[in-house]
Structure formats: C-alpha cells, structure tokens
C-alpha cells in the first residue's frame, strides 16, 4: 500500500538530529522523496544514507545555512534544477540561546532571529514559487510553546518563535489561493539534546509543569508534521498546533 507521502518531494531543514530527524524518518517511511538540510555536511550525508538504507526512498543531503540568504537561494536553485518541484517544506532548523534581558547581546539577538525567523521567510519565499508551479503544497513551520506564552530568560527565543507564528498566519492567507497550505507546530518540552542541556533541577521543573506528567518525544511531533504534510489535512491552513502534553509555563 502506498504511503501518505508517496512520491512527494520534501525539504526538511535541520534534519540531522532531534525533531528534524524524527520528521525525516516519518516522511521516509511514508514514501517521500527527501532533501535533508543541515550545516554539517558529514552528519547530514550520513543521515540521508541511513534513511535510504532503512526505507528504500531517495534521500539527498542539502548542506547550507538557513540563516544565510545567498546560501538559501543557491539551495533552492539546485532544487529547481534537479526536481522542478517541491510539495512540502518543513522549516525546522532553529537554535536556543537563553539569557536574562540584562545580559542579552546584539550578536545573540541577530543570530537567533536569523536562524529561527528570517530563515522561515527565506525558505518559504522560494518554496512558494516551486509549489505554485506544481499547483499547491504544504509549508510547515516549527515554532514553540515559548513563542505563544513566553518564559523568563527567553525573551529573544520567544520573540523569534512568536515571529514564526505571525509569518505562518500571514502566509496562509496570502498563499491559500495558490492551494499552498501554511501551518505551524508549537512543541512543548521534547526529549532532545536541547532539553537535556538544561540543569537537572530546571529539567525536573519543566516536567512537573506538564499535565500529562512526562516529556514528549520527537516522534510525537513528527506525527503531527506528517498529518500537516499529507492530504489528511487538505483543508487545514493558518493553524498553530500545540504538541505539549498540556504544559503550562
């Protein structure tokens, strides 16, 4: 039986680990033709090779920095040259760099917004052009529960992720006539390297704030991405779907 994404051409940014890798695996299992982005060419090539071996689908590495406009343009030019089509874009690449407001540096602000927010605009702009040629598509943007409700010491990160929500809802309205759906996923506390980088005491506090009493898994986020990428969500656009287990910050 064909998968939910059989033959669909997909680009996942930040696919080398964590949520991005889980999304890539879910999509590969459903028959997608994958382009996998990362900044580490060795890591992303290894991931692409492993997914091809596991699922037998085409998985190609595409190494570029999503925060660099010229690099994004060149990557999409390559996509256009080699595929002439893009059905799904997952804007997943992002960074977290916490600091109390009195300690925030200009470079930190610029780096966080460039990676988390500007990159969503850069990639979506080029993806929309390719999707319009194909008669439609799905853009999935990764925001965060922090972008919806904020958190102490995370003003910069929260701002960058809140911007993703605004971008998502605006693009959904702009691109609906072209049959391009644009939605966002807002994960809560998910079991990734980023989560385990925080102090043990803070980790326990975060878990205690989750109504379901446990940390989420990358695969649980990936399943929502699969829904938004597939025709199961054919009439869904402009939405921000929380995947947070009832987390309250």
Entry keywords:
single chain, 249 residues, alpha/beta, 9 helices, 7 strands, seven-stranded parallel β-sheet
Helical content class: 40-55%
| Residue fraction in strands | 5-15%
- DSSP strand count: 7
Query: What structural category do the secondary elements indicate?
Result: alpha/beta
User: Would you tell me the overall average pLDDT?
Assistant: 95
- In DSSP terms, counting alpha (H) and pi (I) runs of 4 or more, how many helices? 9
Q: What is the terminal-to-terminal distance?
A: 42 Å
Low-pLDDT residue spans: none
How large, in whole angstroms, is the Cα Rg? 17 Å
- Largest beta-sheet characterization: 7 strands, parallel
N-to-C order of helices and strands: EHEHEHEHEHHEHHHE
Across the major sheet, the strand order is 3-2-1-4-5-6-7
Overall 3D form = globular
Report on this structure.
There is one protein chain. With 249 residues, the protein is α/β, with parallel strands linked by helices. 49% of the residues lie in helices and 15% in strands. It is built from nine helices and seven strands; from the N terminus they run βαβαβαβαβααβαααβ. β1, α1 and β2 form a beta-alpha-beta unit. α1 runs parallel beside α2 and α3 packs parallel to α4. The longest helix has 29 residues. The mean pLDDT is 95.
Brief summary:
By secondary structure, this protein is α/β, with parallel strands linked by helices.
What's the layout of helices and strands?
Blueprint: E1 9-12, H1 18-29, E2 33-38, H2 41-55, E3 59-63, H3 69-83, E4 88-91, H4 106-134, E5 137-142, H5 145-149, H6 155-175, E6 180-187, H7 193-196, H8 200-208, H9 218-229, E7 240-243
């Amino acid at each position: 039986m064909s998968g939910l994404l059989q033959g669909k051409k997909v680009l996942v940014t930040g696919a080398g680990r964590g949520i991005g890798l889980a999304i890539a695996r879910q999509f590969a299992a459903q028959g997608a033709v994958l382009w996998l982005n990362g900044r580490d060419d060795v890591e992303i090539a290894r991931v692409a090779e492993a997914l091809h071996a596991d699922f037998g689908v085409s998985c190609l590495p595409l190494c570029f920095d999503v925060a660099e406009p010229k690099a994004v343009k060149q990557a999409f030019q390559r996509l256009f040259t080699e595929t002439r089509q893009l059905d799904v874009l997952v804007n997943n690449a992002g960074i977290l760099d916490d600091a109390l407001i009195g300690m925030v540096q200009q470079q930190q602000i610029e780096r966080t917004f460039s990676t988390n927010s500007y990159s969503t605009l850069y990639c979506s702009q080029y993806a929309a052009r390719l999707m319009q040629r194909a008669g439609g598509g799905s853009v999935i943007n990764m925001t965060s529960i922090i972008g919806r409700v904020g958190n102490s010491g995370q003003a910069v990160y929260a701002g960058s992720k809140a911007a993703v929500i605004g971008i998502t809802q605006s693009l959904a309205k702009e691109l609906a006539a072209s049959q391009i759906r644009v939605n966002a996923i807002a994960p809560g506390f998910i079991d990734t390297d980023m989560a385990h980088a925080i102090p043990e005491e803070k980790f326990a506090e975060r878990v205690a704030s989750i109504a379901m009493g446990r940390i989420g898994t990358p695969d649980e986020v990936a399943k929502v991405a699969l829904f938004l990428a597939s025709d199961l969500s054919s009439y869904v656009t402009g939405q921000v779907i929380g995947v947070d287990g009832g987390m309250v910050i």
